[in-house]
Amino acid sequence: MLITRTISETRQAIAQARAQGKRIGFVPTMGYLHEGHLQLIDIAKEHSDFVVVSIFVNPTQFGPTEDYASYPRDFERDKKLCEARGTDLIFAPEVSEMYPERSLITFQIEKLADHLCGARRPGHFNGVVLVVSKLFNIVQPDIAVFGQKDAQQLIIIKRLVQDLNFSVKIISASTVRESDGLAMSSRNVYLSPEQRAQSTVLYQSLQRARALIESGERDAEKIISEIQKLIATASEAKIDYIEIVNVRDLQPVERLDGQILIALAVYFGKARLIDNIVLEISGDRVREIPALP
Ligand code: PAF
Question: Is the pTM of this model over 0.90?
Fold first, then answer.
C-alpha cells in the first residue's frame, strides 16, 4: 500500500495505475476509520482495480465553534485498517498542501443546503464541495463511494458532479450500524457510557416513524412530533433538528409522498450525532431506500 502526502506524488502514482489500465476507485474520509468507512472501501474495490482512500480532516467544513481541533485522529490505526481491507493508496495531505492559501473561489449551493445540517452548520457544505472538488481533481477517480448516513452530503455531491460535469460515478452505500442500531460515526468516541446507552433512541425513533408511515400516517408534523417525544425520553439528548424533506431538492414536505428523507441531528453532550432513513411512498406502499441510486 502506498502512502502519499503531496498532490504531485499522488497524481504520479495514480497516473501509473491508470497507465496499467486500472480503474480508479476513491473513498474520501476524514480518518478515524470505522466499519462504515471500511465497507465503502469494499464497495470501491468491487467497482475498480486501484482504490485510493484520502484521510484529511478538512478545516473549511468546520464552523468556528465546532470540533475541528478535537476531531479524533489516529493515522497509524487508519493505515492498518486500510491495508487490511486492500486499499492501494492512502492520500494524507497536510492542511498546507491542500490549502497553501485561503481559497478565493468558493461555491454557492442553492436549495440543497437550506435545511437540515446546511441550516445548522452555515458554510459546512461549501467546505465539503470545495474539498471534494479538489480531491476529485487530484485523484480523478472513475468511481467514488459516499455513505448515505450523510444523506444531505451525498445528494449535494451527486448534484455537484452533475452540475460541474465531473467524470466520476458516485456510488452510495447504506448506513452501517452497531448491533443496537446506532449509526457508526467517528464522533461516537465522544459518548460517555450513559450517553452511548441512550443514543440508541435515534434509530428507534426512525423505526417508529417508519412503522407509523407503514400504518398509513402521512402528516409530516405528526411523524416529527412522535420522533421528538421518543427522543425526549433520553435525558442526555438535545435535539438540533428533526426534519422531513423530499429527496429531489431537500425542501420540507407537509404530506408524505414520493421519495422522502427523514433526518435528525441530536447532541449527546459534545457529540452531535446524525441519522436518517430514506423512504419511497406510493399510495399505501412504503419501501426503504438504503442506498440512493
Ligand atoms: O464525509 C466526510 O468524511 C467528509 O465530509 C468528506 C466527504 C471526506 C469531505 O471532507
Answer: yes
CATH number 3.40.50.620 is the correct assignment for the domain at 2-173 = yes
* Ligand 1 pocket residue status of 157, Cβ below 6 Å: no
- pLDDT tens track, the chain, 293 positions: 999 999 999 999 999 999 999 999 999 999 999 999 999 999 999 999 999 999 999 999 999 999 999 999 999 999 999 999 999 999 999 999 999 999 999 999 999 999 999 999 999 999 999 999 999 999 999 999 999 999 999 999 999 999 999 999 999 999 999 999 999 999 999 999 999 999 999 999 999 999 999 999 999 999 999 999 999 999 999 999 999 999 999 999 999 999 999 999 999 999 999 999 999 999 999 999 999 99
CATH superfamily of 186-285: Pantoate-beta-alanine ligase, C-terminal domain (3.30.1300.10)
Q: Whose CA is nearest to atom 2 of ligand 1?
A: 29
Q: How far is the CA of 92 from the centre of ligand 1 (A)?
A: 13
Alpha helices, DSSP H, located in the chain: 7-19, 35-47, 75-84, 95-98, 116-120, 124-139, 151-164, 193-198, 201-214, 220-232
Catalytic residue flag (residue 37): yes
Q: Cβ(150) to ligand 1 under 6 A?
A: yes
List the chain domain ranges.
Answer: 2-173, 186-285
